[in-house]
Each structure stands twice: as structure tokens, then as C-alpha cells.
Amino acid sequence: MIRLLSNYLYSCNYAVIDMKLTLIHPAHMDYRKDLFEKLNQEYDVTFVFTKQGRGQKNVFEEQERIPENWNYSVIKTNTIFLGKDVGMYIQLIQELFNDKSDIIITSTSWHLCWLISKIKNKKFILMTEFWHWNNSSFYRKIINLSIRMIAKRSDAIFAMGTKSYSAYSSMDVSSDKLFVHPQCAVDYSNNPVKNLKFDIELDNKIIFLFIGRLVESKGVDVLLRAFSKLEQEDSDVVLIVGGDGHSKTKLEVLSRQLGIKNIQFTGRIEKKDISSYYSMCDVFVLPSIFINESYEPWGLVVNEAMAFGKAIIASSAVGSAYDLISPNQNGYIVRENSSNDLYSAMKQISHDKQRLLEMGNKSRIIFDNKNNFESFFLKLNECIEFVANSSAKKRSN
């Protein structure tokens, strides 16, 4: 009996070590650096990057250089048809059909990766942060039905956040193949900080900060309306809007129309300067909204701001809010697309320095507890082991 148990455990461990992985991801980012390096050390893994060298929705993003010792491929294409990067899909199909791995892990192009994994008889792990699906059109209803089908037929789901975990659990996905861990971000709080120069006076002001792409789903127009109302009652508040995107000009016009005085649009913020912005603010705000199929599945800027011990206000369309914000303790979760609710939350903590300090301290405690790359890897590793061991058991039967 002991020998049989020993042989079984050995076979399970051998399955984990010997399993070849292919991980499909948009790009190599600093917040994936630790996770991917640990995977590369533990497994025979091939990385496939579908958007390396390109940003989300054509907005520039600083990406990491891919280590030369990794086994990887980068898909490069500019073949656009009806707004879709068909060239990328064609090249990805070729990559997957030539792939020699046992397990495919993907956080992008789910449908394509799942379909080919089944054709090639490979195990499939869905690595996802998504949790909200819009049923506003017949097309979206069909897509959402297919998502449910893929979820139930995946070998495991690694949900990055409790909202994502709950979404797949509600689809009657078997609980034993559901794994969850909060998204992790880089801690910039030890980086050098410099004094930033602005066109407006900042001394003795309460500074609200937004950092992100300036696109409709970020809800910055909602923030401008909320801040406009707050500024009319209190001239000692300042709003810093950091980032770039196709909505920037439109938002600057709206700011002038609302008569906002204490506001600064910084444009794109480089990584080397980001710690300076987080350090200077009192409250970080992420007012994202649901618009068509767009929203904020996670929002790593919330993690980043919490590393600096800042109070947080986020909307109900922000996935990280449900893992990282303890209401009334380190911030507030407000109803998405409601400038009145956002205004009320901003007003509650403006000029209460003691409360801001207490909330900021609580944010750092939550960050230290949940933003843990080691436990992030261990949970993903547990997910991979589950799939590898279930495959070994199936082969032994």
C-alpha cells in the first residue's frame, strides 16, 4: 500500500515537472515580471505575446523587455479588417497548431485558444480577470453564451479577483477547478520621488488623483462633474488627471465648460515619475463605468496607490474595489456613472487629514496582505498542478 501511494505521488509530481506549458498573454509588463519568471524557472514554458510593442487600444504603454533566455514568440501584424486585428488571429492559429505543449494557459483570445486546445487534445486553463458581460445585442448574447460554454469546458479557471471568481461560480463551473487570487501590481513606493511643478498652487490643498488611459470607460467625465460640484463649495481642492488617450481633448473642453479652476491634465506619465504623483496626492480616484462591453475588470492603479498609503475611491465597475477597498476603512466604493455619489464620497474625506491618514495606513496594510507575488504564483501553480495531475490520473485509468 505504501509503495502504491509512493508511486502515485511520484507520478503526480512527474506529471507536473514534465508538463510543457504555453502561456498566451498580450504583452510582457512589469506587473507580470515576477510571476512569469517563476513560471519559467519551474516549468518548460513557451510564452506567446500577441501585443508586444503595441498598447491597449493604440494608447502607448511601457512594456518590459522579454528575457533572452525565455522560450517565446512575439506576434507582429498590422492586418486590420473591420476593426479587428485579423493578422494576429491568423498568426496565433499557426502558433497554436505548431505548439508542442501539454497545457495552454491564456488570458487573451479565449475562444480561439480554447477551440484549438480541444482540436489538439490539450489541457486548457483560462486565466481571467473578467466578470461582467453586456447582453445588449444579439451578437453579445451569442458571445456570452460561448463564454459560459468555454468556462464549463475548461480544465481549470484561474480567476484574478473575487468578482471574477463569483462570476464563473454563478455559471455552475465546478468549484474544484476554480482558483482565485487578487491581481498583483508593482510596489513603486520605494522609488525616488521628485517635486512636481504644476500651473496651480498645491500647498495646503487636498489633492485628488486619477491615473489611467483617457478613454470613455474610465469615467473621467463623471469625475470632472463630481469635482466641479466639490470645487464650487471648497476652493482648497485640486484634481490631477494623469494619462493620455483619444478622450483627452474632449475632457479638457468639458473641464473648461464646467468652469473648473484647480485642475491639471498631465498627459502621459512615465514609470519613472509615477511614484512622484502617487506620493503627492491625498486621495486616488478610479471612476470607471460600464460602457458597451468595456469596464475595469481589475484596475492595477488601485494597488499602486495603496502601496503609497492613500485613501481610495473607486466605482462599482472596478473589479479591484471588491478585493482591496474596505468601505469606510480605507476608502469608498461608489455607484458607477453617478457624479453625485462620487461627489458625496469626495466631500466626506476632503480636509479630514486625520481620517485620510488612517485610511491611508489601512490601505497599506491591505496592500501588504493581498498584493503578494509569491502567493499569486503558488495559487497559479496549484491550478497547473490540478490540471497536470488530473491528466496523469486519466492516463493511468
Please outline the helices and strands:
Elements (H helix, E strand, L loop, with lengths): L1 H17 L1 E6 L7 H10 L1 E6 L21 E4 L5 E2 L2 E2 H13 L4 E4 L3 H10 L3 E6 L9 H16 L2 E4 L2 H8 L8 E3 L25 E6 L8 H14 L3 E6 L5 H10 L5 E5 L3 H10 L2 E4 L13 H8 L3 E5 L5 H4 L6 E4 L4 H11 L3 H18 L2 H24 L1
Parallel strand pairs: 1-2, 1-6, 2-3, 6-7, 7-8, 8-9, 10-11, 10-13, 11-12, 13-14, 14-15
Antiparallel strand pairs: 4-5
Pfam families: Glycos_transf_1 (PF00534)
GO molecular function, one term: glycosyltransferase activity
Protein name: Glycosyltransferase
Question: How would you describe this structure to a colleague?
Answer:
- The protein is globular and about 65 Å long.
- The protein is of the alpha/beta class.
- The protein contains 14 helices and 15 strands.
- The protein has helices at 2-18, 33-42, 86-98, 110-119, 138-153, 162-169, 220-233, 248-257, 271-280, 300-307, 321-324, 339-349, 353-370, 373-396; strands spanning 20-25, 44-49, 71-74, 80-81, 84-85, 103-106, 123-128, 156-159, 178-180, 206-211, 237-242, 263-267, 283-286, 311-315, 331-334.
- The strands form three sheets. The protein has a seven-stranded parallel sheet, with helices on both faces. A six-stranded parallel sheet has the order 12-11-10-13-14-15, sandwiched between helices.
- It folds into two domains: 2-184 and 372-396, Glycogen Phosphorylase B (Rossmann fold, 3-Layer(aba) Sandwich), CATH 3.40.50.2000; 206-370, Glycogen Phosphorylase B (Rossmann fold, 3-Layer(aba) Sandwich), CATH 3.40.50.2000.
